[in-house]
Write a structure and sequence with these properties.
With about 270 residues, this protein is α+β, with helices and mostly antiparallel strands. The protein has seven helices and five strands. Helices cover about 70% and strands about 15% of the residues. Strands 1-2-3-5-4 form a five-stranded mixed beta sheet, with helices on one face.
């Protein structure tokens, strides 16, 4: 009888020890797995923050470069054109031949138009223009500048009650819009640009559509080494930087539509 009790006690002790050991192993495995998951999340967060910091720096450098370029155009090219206009005015007054005077007057008009174009371009390059006049007026000015070339048709429509997105958001959106528009005119051979801006209580959305030749979006994005793919991914990353989402829809022969949407809670408003 004592032997059976002692055997049962030993068996119970072994069982309890195994149970405790099993619980310990399970708990250790759980904690280890959670630590591994946390490490991966921390690493991903650090990489995302690093990428965001790099992109933010790129945006700041781009904005400063554009502002510097705008000042150079205004201070150098603008002044040279003004001097040329004055010289043409003097020359027109001294020339007696009507035919020559007519040619000088025509050249003077071209210079006048060029001066106006340089001033308009200078404004579009200056980030302070967006700060002073707001996103919609700045974008309208950009489209008007393009339309004045008489080679393109542009249109902008807004819906809802406009509100401020905050300067940082608006300057990023404005630079993205400039790049999308430039791509449409330079690479897609577009002749018509339509921009729609929608202000909703909880969401902001801008859509830029062109009638250009379009492209195989999926094919371009799969080709990681292509310049076009890198440019499109950069546009999407810049939208993500301000908490937005950028979708691009394009097919060969059917033009391209770029849409950026931002939750209002993500903006600086």
């Amino acid at each position: 009888m004592d032997f059976n009790v002692e055997t049962a006690a030993i068996f119970l002790s072994i069982t309890i020890t195994l149970l405790v050991l099993g619980v310990f192993i399970i708990l250790f495995a759980f904690l280890f797995q959670r630590r591994q998951t946390q490490n991966r999340q921390d690493k991903a967060a650090m990489q995302a923050a690093f990428q965001q910091e790099i992109l933010q720096t790129q945006l700041e450098v781009q904005n400063l470069t554009m502002q510097q370029l705008g000042r150079e155009l205004h201070d150098n090219i603008g002044q040279l054109l003004s001097v040329l206009r004055l010289n043409l005015n003097v020359l027109e007054e001294t020339v007696e031949d009507e035919g020559t005077r007519g040619q000088i007057a025509e050249s003077n008009q071209i210079v006048e138009q060029t001066i106006a174009d340089v001033r308009a371009l200078t404004k579009s390059l200056d980030g302070d223009f967006v700060k002073d006049f707001g996103f919609i007026d700045s974008l309208s000015h950009e489209l008007q500048r393009i339309r004045k070339t008489r080679r393109y048709q542009t249109e902008i429509t807004t819906s809802g009650t406009p509100y401020s997105l905050g300067y940082q958001h608006e300057i990023v959106l404005f630079r993205i819009a400039q790049e999308v528009i430039n791509n449409a005119l330079k690479h897609a051979a577009a002749t018509t640009l339509t921009v729609s801006v929608m202000y909703e209580p909880t969401n902001f959305e801008i859509t830029i559509q062109d009638n250009g030749k379009g492209f195989d979006f999926e094919g371009v994005m799969k080709n990681g080494m292509s310049k076009s793919g890198a440019g499109l991914r950069n546009i999407q990353r810049r939208a993500e930087l301000i908490g937005g989402k950028c979708t691009i829809d394009s097919q060969k022969g059917l033009g391209t539509t770029v849409t950026i949407s931002i939750q209002r809670t993500q903006t600086g408003d």
